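Assemble and predict.
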Amino acid sequence: MTTTTRAESDGDAVDVVGVTKRYGPLVAVDDVSVRVAPGEVYGILGPNGAGKTTLLRMLFGLIRPDSGTIHVFGRTWAHDGVRTLDHVAGFIESPKFYPYLTGRQNLEGLGLLDGTWDGRALGDRIDEALDVVDLVGREDDRVGGYSYGMRQRLGVAASLLRNPRLLVLDEPANGLDPAGIRDMRALVKRLASNGLTVLLSSHHMDEVEEICDNVTIMSRGSVAFHGTISDLRAMAPDPGHLLRTGDDAQAAAIGHDRHRDVAVEPAPGGGLMVTGPQHELSSFVADLVRAEVPLLAFTPTRTPLEELFFMLTDARSEEVA
Amino acid sequence: MSTTTLTRPDAAAARASGGRTSVGLGAAVRWEARKLRAQLRTKALLVGALLAPVAVVVVVSAQSRPPKDTLFGRFATDNGYAMALLVLGFASQWILPLVTAVVAGDIFASEDQHGTWKTVLTRSVSRSRLFWAKVLVAVVFGLVALVLLAGATIAASLVVVGQSPLTGLSGQTIAPHAALGLVAASWATAAPPLVAISCLAILFSVWSRNAAVGIAGPVVAAMVMQLVGSLGGIEAVRPYLLTTPFEAWHGLLAEPRFTGPLVDGVLTSAVWSVAALAAAYVILRRRDITGG
């Protein structure tokens, strides 16, 4: 684990060093270190229960770590209290609001808790934030009548009110429909392009791959991988494809006889699972066509990064078990 | 979503000011008061505090036989001051604890119910300030409810039953203008135990994270203490029960007047309040916010 001094950490947006959190016999977060540079879009990836949300709750001071240190722009909860969050905004899991208040009333209240007393200035900022998340026209409806996606967007608006330098988003696309997911990712990318540091947790590899520069993969509370998306891609296995033909036996024989770099195995649900380098796969399929093997389907199963994600997290799970 | 980007703050100004500062108690109190005002239940309680005494006074005064077995009941249908004191005796048994507990028992637990602890604690307000803001708002609400109940009861009693000299607990005659002051003071003596009940409700609310427990807990506790207080052979314990200060006003209506129970009641209420708030504060400060 990296040793970090306070002077070094002053330059980082987030510097988590050796943080552990236990709940009785369960180790929710186990000696985790994460460093996020200013301006970076950083992903924390892991399956449900990996410890991502617990880590982010500790960053926000909602949970106290049993050991380790967390610096946010050089500040710590032990030393600076709530001022640790001076330049931070975001939400943990799904954002929650007071259902009996309207969207605007919720934002006004949160603005008060940010220390914004000037009603006109706060009103202007709320208007801008509502515009960014496309909630204009619904701000005077009670939040109790909002859809899940609208609450998610209101959560982003509430975060933007703080003019943060670091935006922390925990599973921001959770519960959104495909259009909502697309819009949320576009918004995060747009905010990041304006220089905002983004720390984002997700259990979707494609989301992290699309948005993030660096990633930490967590599994069972521990770090299973830490590095850039490029590093991750370099580690990724060959892509897997499900092959369905009119004559699986002949197709498998062609693979075994002529393409040593291509693995052809019976797939659990029928058909053949084919794995190998992209150029070898092309050649293999061309041979099947030449041999007049009836091709019914040749579809990718998981992307290489997804495959790697499952390998990393499954390996950790087996290790723990 | 829109392509508009949010205005960035002036970086130099932000640096000069050292960034955001933690929010004071005033902002947190404003926010808590605003939330309370927006709730239908709060409005209903305050309207009820104004209207219910009128209904009670009208119903009791229409009885052909006054409730002779209760304090000041004998004169309640003939004397407005006696009626106001009869209602005070009745209200302090469970109405006052219930009215104050409806807000104080819910004000912390509702954050758990809505999952909003994480929403407010990720802004610029500390747990301590939020705690004291909620305490302040809950206690002030209880006192406002008491003032409304007292005002409505006294006004309704005097209008419906009428004014005449009041017969005190020692049989002395108290002139109407003096009686009005004593009746108002009697209602005011309910304030210290009411504050203590609020603090107890706050403790139940923080500890249980459940509004039902927060509201019912102090009411049940008050009823149990009332039962214990009515038992014989517990004179040593009775002064420390939270329900005893609700009877401290009796000394104001005796001749000669005695205020010892009043002072004891204030002290007892203060001890209960401090103990309940200290426990609630420690629980909230040490708590991991994992829900929501």
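Chain B touches chain A at residues 1-9, 14, 19-24, 27-28, 30-31, 34-35, 38-40, 114-126, 288-290, 292 (CB under 8 Å).
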